[in-house]
Amino acid sequence: xxxxxxxxxxxxxxxxxxxxxxxxxxxxxxxxxxxxxxxxxxxxxxxxxxxxxxxxxxxxxxxxxxxxxxxxxxxxxxxxxxxxxxxxxxxxxxxxxxxxxxxxxxxxxxxxxxxxxxxxxxxxxxxxxxxxxxxxxxxxxxxxxxxxxxxxxxxxxxxxxxxxxxxxxxxxxxxxxxxxxxxxxxxxxxxxxxxxxxxxxxxxxxxxxxxxxxxxxxxxxxxxxxxxxxxxxxxxxxxxxxxxxxxxxxxxxxxxxxxxxxxxxxxxxxxxxxxxxxxxxxxxxxxxxxxxxxxxxxxxxxxxxxxxxxxxxxxxxxxxxxxxxxxxxxxxxxxxxxxxxxxxxxxxxxxxxxxxxxxxxxxxxxxxxxxxxxxxxxxxxxxxxxxxxxxxxxxxxxxxxxxxxxxxxxxxxxxxxxxxxxxxxxxxxxxxxxxxxxxxxxxxxxxxxxxxxxxxxxxxxxxxxxxxxxxxxxxxxxxxxxxxxxxxxxxxxxxxxxxxxxxxxxxxxxxxxxxxxxxxxxxxxxxxxxxxxxxxxxxxxxxxxxxxxxxxxxxxxxxxxxxxxxxxx
Length: 569
Prior knowledge:
This protein is of the alpha+beta class. The chain folds into five domains: about 15-55, no CATH class; about 70-200, PH-domain like (Roll); about 250-360, Roll (PH-domain like); about 370-435 and about 560-565; about 445-540, EF-hand (Recoverin, domain 1). About 30% of the residues lie in helices and about 20% in strands. The chain has 17 helices and 20 strands. The chain has a six-stranded antiparallel β-sheet with strand order 6-5-4-3-8-7. A hairpin with a 2-residue loop joins strand 18 (about 510) and strand 19. Helix 11 (about 445-455) packs across helix 14. The radius of gyration is 45 Å and the shape is elongated.
């Protein structure tokens, strides 16, 4: 009795099958019918009789405990082999073989290969990448397949694009990986000696003749400057066929960008009109350029404006058309009292702005004219007779025995004794020992303005500030140094202008310390609210000059007693 032709009761393999496509085995080429699909599968992708399964990609084992795909799990993992190949080179003695070493890399993520030959010196052969990264087909008769990881082994030959490579060794990672795949590695091989390179070395460096001593190269003479462009650009055209732009000092650009030294100057001339003209000389530290501007003066009859565009200025006394590098004005050449030769005119620097004085004093190692230590050393090196006369004249200039004299008196005394100090050095000396009297300020009004500032900025972190101040007070005296108090104010981001903060600290200064309890009580607008203030009072306090400003006038008070103490050290 036969079984019914129903699912589950028949041996028909076609039951449940969904793919019934047919591979194309025949095609026309140049009008001729040809069989082009002898290796293609049958209906539905099933292998025909005598066909074998040929995978397109390597079936690498998955990592233990990982469900990632192979191309993700083996990302950036490469098998590295050392190999060599031989090629025929036509030499003087006929044809001979040259041995060329190379590296074979097999990328596990996509089964691609790359062959790279390391660069060697003193060879005219093209080197570098020998075979670009790609899938390399196997030699015939398996040219329809590609090399995979299990095809590799050491001390064996591989044919890559009709060239025979001999694999000699591999790295430890490659050895461990192939062992896990079940590949039994052969013993490492050696690279044979290269007869071509050996013969080349014997000819280029014979043993019989010793190498002559190196001949010193004479200095390269440069032609003189021809006047076109800048000296650096003209010099770059003489150093090579392809001129390169001059290199910029990047470190100087980073540290001195937007830093300008500004001086007031006059022309040294006998012309009464030109001698009254005022100029502003700006020196840009980023590229050592100078700009000169003449402010407009009413009823002078001279049009002001730009006198010199921003450019580097050569020092006088130099030939223009010469091969020697030019010398330009440097920052150290500019100071109060110095002379500059610009556009065939002599300028004398009369004064500088506060930023210039401050910058030169902060960088006193770079500016000798602003170095207080150097100035005091000059005074100490004077003969003892001059020092004794200086002490005597300073004492006579202070009949009230207050320890102070005016800057005008100090300057006249130094000029009279011929102390060999420039105008800038005398100004720096006066700034160093000058005592400024700050105008008396209304304490309640300042506290009211400060509280108004804090209310506008919505600042109320008073408890945090008090905790920080109490932590710094290790002796529990209720006072800490001014420097520590200022640091805590900055760290707490107290939103006050610098001049108001200076006045606030001076208000609660006791000796060299701050009464921080009274300080916090004065600014705490939540517990000790001050009366409201008018906008005019706020503006009056905002524009009071800070104590850090050290502007000298002839009537400025100089503490000469402190100066004498420094001279006797």
